[in-house]
Specification:
The complex is a heterohexamer, with two copies of chain A (218 residues), one copy of chain B (51 residues), one copy of chain C (250 residues) and two copies of chain D (215 residues). With 51 residues, chain B is mainly α. Chain B is 84% helix and 0% strand. Chain B has one helix at residues 8-50. The termini of chain B are far apart. With 250 residues, chain C is mostly helical. The termini of chain C are far apart. Classes of the chains: A mainly alpha (218), B mainly alpha (51), C mainly alpha (250), D alpha/beta (215). Bound molecules: protoporphyrin IX containing FE, adenosine-5'-triphosphate (2 copies) and magnesium ion (2 copies).
């Protein structure tokens, strides 16, 4: 499992896919928002927490479709399935590698991009905290979606379609926490709920994903 | 040290950030340049010996 | 002897090695003098207070950010038309320097904006076009990094540079159109004819000179590094070849 | 020689009884039975489309049988097919080392030696020729420590010398008490029994498909 | 060329990639916006034109990475390159097929989704018109990006990074036109500029894309 | 028989002079010269990694020569390699018809007949076995109307009967005045000259690489 984790990191780093680019997409979504809704800073401040969460979610989503597909196409997934590693572990490890290469950089970059959108000063801390709590769930749910669509050519968009509804609870509580904090309200309730969702997802989702993957492989 | 008044933070941090970035790119450039040069010298010497 | 002779890597290295000490020294002197002068020995502006001292970093870096891209454009054209390797490598070498210049302009601007406009960032046309330029730099560097074969990378990045330039100019006009009349921030930035007295102007010129020299020194040095890297690669490839031959011959 | 210590489940037999296999819901082969004791090899033959790949995938556990059983296959199978599972961005050594550690092994040197990959260890897998890639894919078998090799057209794109290397590797594996089940169209020069799958072609009526409930 | 166009359409329809899914992504982005910025209808009305344009752009972007990559991976691009068709034509035709399967459905769906975001009634016509004028440029620019990144594994995010700044002028004029119309102002200037950009892109970009593809194929 | 009418540029020779080819900037073969008149076939041989694929890609115009020229190749070459360019979602007939119309042809029946694909016309390409896929990939050659076939290991995964079908197709092509350049490790049973590429291995010093300017 360790070997798989580090291989995925190495591949992400080397194949020019990894760290930098999920981040770049996040940056660009955030930059394009003012171009599309207009440059008034009051409006931007109002929508900033939501846009940052949505941007992070989309950046995460965009890198999902290759999470398992690459290994499927070149046969590595078949070989892993006949290896001693349990499929549940394989999916969980791949989700973890995805989070390290995508979610973590997003968490770290969010405050910087907050500046671009005129985020209220009180919002920064909770924004980062909520992203740190929420993005692991995004990666794990995404891995489940990737497992569902793994055999399908051009599964990318189908994957989005399947995964986005599953992202809704995470998004609602995460964005709500960030928004409350930005407005100076108490964000603790949504934060707790968010943490609860993430824990539940991390505990249960690998089994669902493993089961789905097992079906897809046979 | 000139008196920067209430804007001291802004001015000092602007200088600090810029100087860090400038020194950073110079150091990085030179460090990588040295490494590559050493590597090339090693390879040149080796291949010179081999034929 | 024509200018193109210097496109030969060896000739280029020899020449660049000769001028580099002067460039580095000139950059150090100009930057030292200009920044010390600007920081310690210029008065505060009547409206902006001491923040005006940021101009000595902000304006030179902003100018160099644009000029670096322009240099890359010229180098890319030379590569496309005449296929001189040094030219492609110079473009590659300049991009990270351009990124740093853009970052300095953005960051000093943001730091300046906080006291002047009450916000770190506003979607002022000038700032916005700079942000877009930053994105183009990032894409350009990422493309260089992503492609293994150096000549392919040179071809692709040069075309990206051409297309990017067209779109950067287009974006500049689009942004001006988009934010017309919505933003007052730009009027706060002090206008040269209006505000910049000689006390600010001369040290500013010295700083600009320093940035130009530093840029040239960095680009020449980095181009040299890229040339050596290619040479190392070529030598290793040759070595591997002949080793393989010996092994097979035996 | 029986190396149970390094994971060979010697003497255990791979036993296939009355197996029926299918692709895309349609039955392909039915009534296949054979047993493969340690130390032996079995070569599957049959024209294109006769169902060799389908059978091998079923034996390897990658698809479920439509009927019948496969015994003695759990955690003993190393499977190699057309898709090699190699990562173009990783070097030969990194690719092998990864698979070794997935299977809890550590030594990749014998595998490199057996398939003459020593000169290529630092080369990225994406920069290998077709035959070199295949050799690497086959070398992977040797770092699994598994004792039943299930191979689907293993010698595709190999030159004569590499086919000989492969045959040697299989012979070594058999000598250590392992076994091998291979589908191939060419002659490998390995003493092995042959099973022609075309004799087991499933008559559509003869057997149950997953859609049986609707019939 | 005709054959290539229809083949791409058939593939998009059959492989589960095409029509439905670009649309679905658009839908879901639009639906997630209220979850992330909050449900106040005045705020939504204000940002509706921008969100619709941004959503269309992202939906378009998301399907780009397979525009050429699929044909590259299975060798079809090599074979097409040795065929009598010029590479410029191949890229242009593929961009056209991409537009028909992605851009066109977005144009048609935008008014429906406008309802979800409380778009001002005066905005609908110009929104559709601006999308109809702008999305062909998005597809063609995207094809250029796809040609640039075709040889790169996991090039999807790099593609976004390269393409999004190129999308800026189109987005600005398109969203500006839709916004002006929604506010009851005259949208004709940005519409003309948008049409100008699209024409220029359609005329010039196939050559850049063809050149890039030629480099990547050799 | 010379069928210029259907696009065969009969009599025109494919001429390769002093060709040097490379991969990833490194020279692989140098000094390759041969000519291939209409009606003849040339088989490239050489161990794995000797540069056959690289040479074929260069002749097909998919990569640029490092030195030397290829004459008489423009718009005459039909190239087939490992990657078949088949779309899994399209049927056999649709795949073939697509390539036929790309090359301005229309009749796919002879190609289907030659490779015994008639029973599979309505099958999706994704549901073919390895050998059936390969047959479809080779049938594509017959709908190009091109007269120089450049083939990289064409018989991979084919059974003996299919190899014979392929040999017949090549013979027919040659008889119509076409020519074929093939890399293969097995014996095809086609009367053809052989060129062993291992004799042309590029000595590093002997030739220019793209990095030459830096040496
Ligand atoms: C992140 C924010 C900023 C960015 C990206 C930025 C960018 C630029 C650029 C690109 C230039 C050079 C343009 C030219 O010479 O044509 C420039 C010049 C200048 N900027 Fe900024 N700027 C920013 C913030 C500010 C702020 C907050 C101030 C002061 C209130 C300011 C004051 C100036 C001045 C005085 C010049 C020189 C103008 C001239 O010489 O024409 N900038 N800035
Ligand atoms: N997804 C599928 N749906 C329906 N039929 C399929 C599917 N995949 C393969 N088949 C058919 O199943 C049969 C068995 O295929 P299989 O791949 O097992 O053959 P094979 O013996 O391996 O042939 P080859 O020697 O060509 O590799 C073939 O007739 C094939 O056409
Ligand atoms: N991208 C690359 N970079 C560097 N070297 C490469 C690259 N691709 C292939 N090579 C090397 O170039 C040589 C020629 O490869 P090529 O694929 O032409 O061989 P081949 O004769 O077709 O072999 P095979 O019979 O195995 O298919 C090989 O030694 C290979 O390792
Ligand atoms: Mg098979
Ligand atoms: Mg080959």
């Amino acid at each position: 499992m360790r070997a798989l984790f580090f291989r995925d990191l190495a591949l992400a780093l080397r194949a020019g896919g990894g760290f930098g680019l999920g981040l770049a997409f996040f940056l660009i979504v955030v930059v394009l928002v003012p171009f599309s809704v207009g440059p008034q800073s009051a409006l931007l401040t109002q929508i900033a927490p939501g846009v940052l969460w949505l941007g992070a979610l989309l950046a995460c989503l965009l890198s999902l479709d290759r999470l398992l597909a690459v290994d499927w196409e070149d046969g590595a997934l078949d070989l892993l399935a006949t290896s001693p590693l349990p499929l549940e572990g394989i999916v969980a490890v791949k989700a973890a590698a995805h989070w390290v290469t995508t979610g973590l950089p997003l968490v770290l970059a969010a405050p910087v991009l907050g500046v671009l959108l005129n985020l209220a000063p009180s919002g920064y801390g909770v924004l980062v905290l909520s992203l740190a709590l929420g993005t692991p769930a995004l990666s794990m749910i995404g891995a489940f979606g990737a497992a569902l669509t793994v055999g399908i050519k051009r599964g990318g968009l189908l994957l989005s379609l399947l995964v986005l509804p599953l992202y809704v609870p995470t998004l609602i509580f995460g964005a709500e926490a960030a928004r409350r904090a930005a407005q100076g309200l108490d964000p603790s309730t949504p934060l707790f709920l968010l943490a609860g969702i993430t824990l539940a997802v991390l505990a249960a989702m690998p089994f669902a994903a493993g089961a789905v993957l097992r079906v897809n492989l046979r | 040290m000139p008196d920067l008044g209430k804007y001291a933070d802004a001015v000092l941090s602007a200088y600090a950030v810029s100087i860090v970035l400038l020194v950073g790119i110079v150091v990085l450039t030179v460090w990588r340049g040295r490494r590559v040069r050493a590597e090339m010298d090693a390879v040149e010497k080796r291949s010179g010996r081999n034929g | 002897m024509s200018l193109w002779e210097y496109a030969n890597p060896v000739k280029f290295l020899r020449l660049s090695e000769r001028v580099q000490p002067w460039l580095w020294a000139g950059a150090a002197i100009c930057l030292g003098v200009g920044l010390v002068w600007g920081f310690f020995f210029t008065p505060d502006d009547f409206r902006q207070g001491s923040t005006v001292k940021i101009i000595y970093l902000h304006v030179p870096s902003a100018l160099m950010a644009i000029n670096a891209w322009f240099m890359m454009l010229v180098a890319s054209l030379i590569w496309i038309i005449r296929r001189h390797h040094v030219s492609a490598l110079a473009a590659k070498a300049a991009a990270p320097v351009g990124i740093v210049m853009t970052l300095i302009a953005l960051l000093t601007g943001a730091i300046w904006g906080q006291p002047m406009w009450g916000t770190w960032w506003a979607w002022d046309p000038r700032l916005t076009s700079f942000l877009i330029l930053f994105l183009f730099y990032l894409g350009y560097v990422a493309l260089w990094e992503a492609i293994e074969d150096p000549d392919t990378a040179a071809d692709l990045t040069s075309i990206l540079c051409l297309v990017g330039t067209v779109f950067a100019v287009l974006s500049r006009y689009a942004v001006l159109f988009w934010n017309q009349g919505l933003h007052q921030g730009a009027s706060l930035s002090l206008d040269k004819e209006e505000n910049v007295a000689d006390v600010f102007y001369i040290p500013l010129l010295v700083c600009i000179g320093g940035f130009v020299l530093l840029f040239l020194a960095l680009v020449l040095y980095r181009t040299g590094t890229e040339i050596r890297l290619r040479r190392t690669r070529a030598l290793i490839a040759r070595e591997a070849r002949s080793a393989g031959l010996h092994a097979e011959g035996a | 020689m029986c190396l149970r210590a390094i994971g060979y489940g010697c003497g255990m037999e791979l036993k296939v009884t009355d197996l029926a296999v299918g692709r895309g819901g349609a039955p392909v082969l039915a009534g296949v039975s054979f047993s493969l004791p340690g130390g032996q090899a079995l070569v599957l033959r049959g024209p294109n489309g006769s169902g060799k790949t389908t059978l091998l995938r079923t034996v390897a556990g990658l698809q479920v049988p439509m009927a019948g059983q496969v015994h003695g296959a759990e955690d003993r199978i190393a499977y190699a097919a057309h898709a090699d599972g190699l990562k173009a961005a990783l070097t030969v050594a990194e690719n092998l080392r990864f698979w070794a550690s997935v299977f809890g092994q550590s030594d990749i040197a014998p595998a490199l030696a057996a398939f003459d990959l020593e000169d290529l260890v630092e080369r990225r897998a994406g920069q290998l020729s077709a035959g070199q890639k295949r050799r690497l894919g086959l070398a992977r078998l040797m770092v699994t420590g598994r004792d039943v090799w299930v191979l689907d057209e293993p010698t595709v794109s190999l030159d004569a010398a590499s086919v000989a290397l492969f045959a040697d590797a299989v012979r070594g594996h058999l000598a250590r008490g392992g076994s091998a089940l291979m589908a191939t169209h060419i002659d490998l020069g390995i003493e092995a029994e042959t099973l022609d799958v075309s004799g087991f072609r499933a008559a559509a009526a003869q057997m149950a498909s997953t859609d049986e409930a609707f019939l």
